[in-house]
Amino acid sequence: MHAFDVLGDPVRRRILELLADGERSAGEVGAVVQEEFGISQPAVSQHLRVLRDNGFARVRADGVRRLYAVETEPLQEVNRWLERFWSQRLDALGTELARGKRADRLRTPAPQHEGAP
Amino acid sequence: MHAFDVLGDPVRRRILELLADGERSAGEVGAVVQEEFGISQPAVSQHLRVLRDNGFARVRADGVRRLYAVETEPLQEVNRWLERFWSQRLDALGTELARGKRADRLRTPAPQHEGAP
DNA sequence: CAATCGTATCACTCACTGCTTATATAAGCG
DNA sequence: CGCTTATATAAGCAGTGAGTGATACGATTG
Questions:
Q1: Are A78 and B81 a contacting pair, CB within 8 Å?
Q2: Dihedrals φ, ψ of B2, to 5°?
Q3: pLDDT at position B113, please?
Q4: Closest residue of B to A84, CA-based?
Q5: Could you tell me which residues come within 8 angstroms of residue A90 by beta carbon, excluding any fewer than 6 positions away?
Q6: Quick check: A17 and A37 in contact, CB under 8 A?
Q7: In a domain, B92, yes or no
Q8: Are residues A23 and A64 in the same domain?
Q9: Which helix (H) or strand (E) holds A65?
Q10: How many CA atoms lie less than 13 Å away from A110 in the CB half-sphere?
Q11: Strand, coil or helix: A117
């Protein structure tokens, strides 16, 4: 499952926001999320599993409780994708400007077709 | 459809990468994507539609061709979400460090809310 | 105008994802 | 020990989204 797929779900995004504040037990997360989204405990547990399985969160046992904490690697991968995108785009804009200016003088700027009859 | 859902699809991510280099016709995009993913022309067209409908791309007619260009707003929204996340997380780490050292001795368990009967 | 190109839309299928209920497991407590 | 609490897993069902083939349609060309 790709990082963006994991983030596609609003419940999972919310869980990550909660975990961003620091370690939380499954129950604490569940309380908030069940309240806000009106879903069941197993549903939340399944979302937590997805986050675990995809490296977005790590778990630690504390007695009966399971303490979840956010794991940043996949998020950073997303960041990297975005950064590549932006820089690629800026490069393109740059060369287009550089080339475009000259081209403007050589070519008829408007590639318009003849007027309607 | 949320921005993250749009980005969830690998084909759409690829299309955006292609458009990041500058304006491209639907056919050019299609050629690459059909080749790389082994999907049909309508499939690509539908992805382009999703990108359009969600503000990730704008179209411009040029004769028979449709020229697509990337539109940055939704991507920036994603960026903003991530930035909020990182800064929230850094804040949490900060206060946890500041408080945590002392708290470790007092062992203040997680904030508990009143139970619903 | 007919033929054709480039692209979009339609109608449909299929796989997957997320939800629910029911149940399992494991820790803590009387 | 058996009851309760905290959490996870299992099985089944419904909605959704991505794919396909067929088709529509506007622009272009002979």
A1: no
A2: -80, 150
A3: 39
A4: B17
A5: none
A6: no
A7: yes
A8: yes
A9: strand A65-70
A10: 3
A11: coil
Rounded to whole angstroms, the Cα distance separating B20 from B76 reads 14
Q: Structure pTM?
A: 0.84
- Which of B17, B89, B110 comes nearest A85 by C-beta? B17
Condensed to tens digits (0 to 9), the pLDDT of residues B51-107 reads 999 999 999 999 999 999 999 999 999 999 999 999 999 988 888 677 655 544 444
Tokens of A97: 């400007």
One domain for residues B92 and B37: no
Query: Interface of chain B against chain A, CB under 8 Å?
Result: 2, 4-5, 7-8, 10, 13, 16-17, 20-22, 62-63, 70, 72, 75, 78-79, 81-82, 85-86, 88-89, 92-93, 96, 110, 113
Same domain, A9 and A54: yes
Domain that holds residue A84: 72-105
Q: Which of A24, A31, A89 sits opposite B113 (nearest CB)?
A: A31
Rounded-to-integer distance, Cα B68 and Cα B72, Å: 13
Instruction: Tell me how far apart the alpha carbons of residues B80 and B29 are, in angstroms, rounded to a whole number.
Output: 28
Helix, strand, or coil here: B23? Answer: coil
